[in-house]
Design goal:
This protein is mainly beta and 334 residues long. It has helices spanning 8-11, 319-325; strands at 4-6, 30-31, 36-38, 56-57, 63-69, 76-82, 89-93, 95-99, 104-110, 116-123, 129-132, 147-151, 156-160, 173-176, 181-184, 193-198, 204-209, 217-223, 230-235, 237-242, 249-253, 256-260, 267-272, 283-290, 296-303, 310-317. It is globular and about 50 Å long.
Length: 334
């Protein structure tokens, strides 16, 4: 499968004045559309087949791995993409692939019916794999597991039994790689918080707050584990991700990806997928994941289509902007 370099100038509607992006009365954002790679062709995979996290970065930030569900093949497929390459590499059939080293992944193998079969560890160089977390299969609910999130610091799996939702929903329980129960997953969801991302020190947190279902989402910067903080944006916000180096907060605003300097609160639009003012274009940026070196940002765009919703995956090259300014981004102070 070929990978396209997405010239975002082709995706940007020329008549949209980039300087007119407003955030509830706050200053307009500077715009620097970055280079990006488009990993998936449109209308080829099923959006509801996506599992969180939608993509995993290798520790060296040189490749990504992800699983998708084919609309025509009706198969769960795992692909690997190395930065800059023109094709995807098919790896295996399954979901929730996660890097545990630069050459090894773990993933959930499923039957054609969608029932979980087992968690497997696979060497990407040799193709050799074997089942792990065998104790997990002894649980009555194992067949209903839709996927998991691997925590590299703890070396654990956070399993989930829920399909894709608008906002990220972590699994309720945590298991070690032998499949033994570790405990319940700590989560900040609740009290109006629908998603969040800590800085590397956990002293600050970017939280997405929605007081009521009918109200817009408020993006706030809070201290520590406070449930409220200073509002920095409001509206069609679907995802937030604090960079591993702590210097940049990225968030999804409708069809746009915006990065924010948490010290100055200046912001920059780095990607725009179509015309933000076209209400007939039912797509939005749904998830964001930084590479470990904070040089690249993966974005999942959810496209609602009468013939079936489908996902689009992009990898944004943030390194050029960082190198050009010797700082993460040239921003407009708020």
């Amino acid at each position: 499968m070929r990978v396209r370099i997405a010239a975002f100038a082709l995706l940007v509607i020329a008549i949209v004045a980039a300087a007119l992006v407003y955030f509830s009365g706050q200053p307009a954002a500077h715009t620097r559309i970055v280079r990006a790679w488009s990993l998936l062709p449109k209308e080829s995979y099923r959006a509801m087949g996506v599992t969180d996290p939608f993509l995993s970065w290798s520790p060296d930030s040189r490749s990504v791995i992800f699983g998708v569900y084919g609309l025509q093949s009706h198969e769960y497929k795992i692909f690997r993409w190395k930065l800059g390459e023109k094709k995807l590499e098919y790896v295996a059939s399954g979901v929730s692939p996660s890097f545990i080293s630069n050459d090894e992944i773990i993933y959930l193998k499923k039957a054609p019916s969608g029932k979980a079969i087992g968690v497997f560890r696979r060497n990407l160089r040799t193709g050799v794999e074997g089942e792990i977390a065998r104790a997990l299969r002894k649980n009555d609910f194992f067949g209903d597991i839709t996927g998991f999130d691997y925590d590299p610091k703890r070396g654990t799996l956070q399993v989930r039994m829920i399909e894709y939702t608008r906002f990220r929903t972590p699994g309720p329980d945590e298991y070690d790689l032998d499949g033994n129960f570790v405990g319940s997953v700590a989560s900040r969801l609740g009290e109006g918080i629908v998603d969040y991302s800590f800085d590397p020190t956990s002293r600050q947190c970017a939280i997405m707050v929605r007081e009521r279902y009918t109200r817009p989402v408020s993006l706030q910067l809070a201290n520590g584990k406070n449930s409220r903080g200073r509002e920095i944006a409001r509206g069609k916000i679907n995802a937030v991700a604090w960079s591993p180096d702590g210097r940049t907060v990225a968030y999804a605003y409708g069809k746009e990806v915006i990065v924010l300097n948490p010290r100055t609160l200046g912001r920059t639009v780095v990607a725009r997928f179509g015309d933000p003012n076209d209400e007939k274009d039912n797509r939005y940026v749904a998830r964001l994941i930084w590479s470990p070196n904070s040089q690249y940002l993966a974005a999942f765009v959810y496209v609602s289509n009468p013939s079936g919703d489908y996902p689009l995956y992009y990898v944004l090259d943030m390194s050029a902007a960082i190198k050009a300014d010797r700082e993460p981004f040239r921003t407009i102070p708020s």
